[in-house]
Request: fold
Amino acid sequence: MANFFQEQAELIFSTITGAVGGVTGWFVGRRKNKAEGVSIELENIKTILEINREELDNLKKGLSSTRDELKHCREEMEKVLNERLEYLKKKANLQTNKQQNNK
Reply:
């Protein structure tokens, strides 16, 4: 009979020990999984920020290039307009001289 109680006590003790170990394992595992989830989320955010920085740098380079092209176009346009203005002045002078010579 004492042997029966001893077996039952061992069975109850191992059940309690297993339950406590399971709960402890679950709690530690939950904290670990939560920490890993936060770590993965932070890595994803870092990756997104890095991609955004690269895109921003590309946009800045493109904008700088576009500004340079626009500046060049303005200079060319100003050059053409000045040449046209000089042409029109010469044409007006020729017409004025022609009219004065005809008088």
About this structure: The helical segments are 2-102. The mean pLDDT is 87. The radius of gyration is 44 Å.
